[in-house]
Amino acid sequence: MAALPVASAAAQQPAPGASAAPAGPPRGYRDPYADKKRLLIIADLSTGNQSAHIGSSHAVSVIEQIGRKTGAYISIIRTDTDLVTKGEVWGTGAYAKGGPRQARGRNLDYFDAVLFYTNGETRMTPQQKQDLLDFVAKDGKGFIGVHTATATAVSWPEYSQMLGGNFDNHPWGIKDAKIIVERPDFPAMKKLKTGSVLLDEHYQMLPTPYSRAEVDVLARLDTRGLDLTLPGVHRKDGDFPVAWIKSYGKGRVFYSGLGHPDAAWDDPRVQALFLEGIKWAINGGQAPRPHPMTPAPK
């Protein structure tokens, strides 16, 4: 059977004297999300652990669905970081700038918040990194970190400072653990109570940059049900946050270490946590109130 002909690179370029396709959308196109709040979800694990967080697919599908069902936001899901820029975004090949089908994409200016379920150092350029920081701090937009977001770009200290913490380890593996709700008045806590049990891969943060002076902890683990003698337990203060909010310049940051197993995303309590956290990051609301650890209930 004869091989099918392969189009050459030259065949994909405009003929001499021909002009490229218009860079904008087709005539008559209307942005279906023009009047919606827009969330850019980055689910990129390509530079990190390649096997441990396969549940991120279910996670981002749930995040997309709860936003759409409630009307709180519309999600654009990407498994690359190409849109994390304030520069021009183009396709490749025939869809590159100047190509016969040139197609210009969206950039950060289109979105109200960015969510990272990411791992590893990422492939963002130095300019992209600065654009993301400016998107939050200068433009007053929102950033949401999920689970491994604290294990992302650990060699980029400004990112860690924006987010509020760096992952150390998860000394208990995937385990049922009780929580202590520190901010019961915050909307993200409305389905969680002190004593609620959550099955997850609960994280421990490094000593810096995590600081109670910088982040407003919404809930933490109740250490009375945890084995603190394990060799992986490094914190001696018993401070293992489950979720927090913080300010970064003019913008807002929400983070939760929950979200490792698929089952977490089928839990209405976790769904409510992330829905309200994302809504807060997009729209604002209560100002963060950093505080010391609250006493454990008797």
- How large is the share of residues in beta strands? 15-25%
Overall form: elongated
Q: How much helix, percentage-wise, in residues?
A: 10-25%
Low-pLDDT stretches are 1-17
Span between N and C termini?
78 Å
Q: Average pLDDT across residues?
A: 92
Radius of gyration: 22 Å
Most strands sheet: 9 strands, mixed
What are the secondary-structure elements, in order, as H or E?
Answer: EHEEHEHEEEEEEEHH
Question: How many helical elements?
Answer: 5
User: How many beta-strand elements?
Assistant: 11
Please give the order of strands in the largest beta sheet: 2-1-3-4-11-10-9-6-7
Structural class estimated from helices and strands: alpha/beta
Task: Give me the secondary-structure topology.
Layout: E1 38-42, H1 56-70, E2 74-78, E3 113-116, H2 126-137, E4 142-146, H3 157-163, E5 167-169, E6 174-181, E7 197-201, E8 204-205, E9 216-221, E10 241-248, E11 251-256, H4 262-265, H5 268-283
Parallel strand pairs: 1-2, 1-3, 3-4, 4-11
Antiparallel strand pairs: 5-8, 6-7, 6-9, 9-10, 10-11
